[in-house]
Design goal:
Length: about 200
């Protein structure tokens, strides 16, 4: 998105707000993204700093990411803030070793395209799961194990046994708790210290 800053030229400290919506086409090639569900909304403030123009603001976007285990699409709202100063002139390279990272004003315009795209890209989580214990896909046949069972050997047996072992664990925990109630924790301690 190119912003015209001619209204701020020569007015140190002056600023304007701008709100724009545009399609986030650059996300189509990103493998984590299943679908882009809304336009990208940018609410920005541009301030003349004397040295250049400071852009601050918020970006928001709705999209569907893939669960990194079962690949199911998950709706997510990305929100991120941005801050970047566009300089009128490149600083002396000796003075500021960071100069490479700072963009320049181009005539009466600043180009926020790469600032906005990079900010959105880094805010996409590397790993998203549909639920904490998503079992993912069967390595044998690709079945979505949270929704279906399959006839593949080993991995499926583990999955089928998982609820059973949970039940057993719960049962043993209950018994221990009941035993503690019966005897009382102080008595248990005494008993332990004797033995
Ligand atoms: Zn999942
Ligand atoms: Zn399978």
């Amino acid at each position: 998105m190119r912003l015209n800053i001619s209204s701020l030229v020569g007015r140190n400290g002056a600023s304007f707000h701008i709100e724009k919506e545009f399609p986030a086409d650059f996300l189509r090639e990103i493998p984590e993204v299943s679908k882009v569900l809304s336009p990208l909304i940018a609410k920005l403030k541009v301030t003349n700093t004397g040295e250049g123009y400071l852009v601050t603001g918020e970006l928001a976007l709705k999209l569907a990411l893939h669960c990194s285990r079962c690949l199911k699409p998950l709706e997510t709202t990305l929100q991120t803030s941005i801050e970047e100063e566009y300089l009128n002139h490149p600083p002396e390279s000796d003075e500021d070793p960071l100069w490479d990272e700072q963009p320049l004003v181009e005539g009466n315009e600043i180009d926020t395209t790469s600032l906005i795209e990079e900010s959105i890209l880094v805010s996409i989580p590397m790993k998203t799961v549909c639920q904490e214990d998503c079992p993912g896909l069967c390595p044998g046949c690709g079945a979505v194990l949270a929704e279906e069972t399959c006839d593949c050997p080993d991995p499926t047996i583990d999955i089928r046994l998982a609820p059973l072992s949970k039940l057993l664990q719960q049962a043993s925990e209950t018994t221990t708790a009941e035993r503690r109630k019966d005897h009382g924790s102080s008595k248990e301690k005494t008993f332990k210290s004797k033995s």
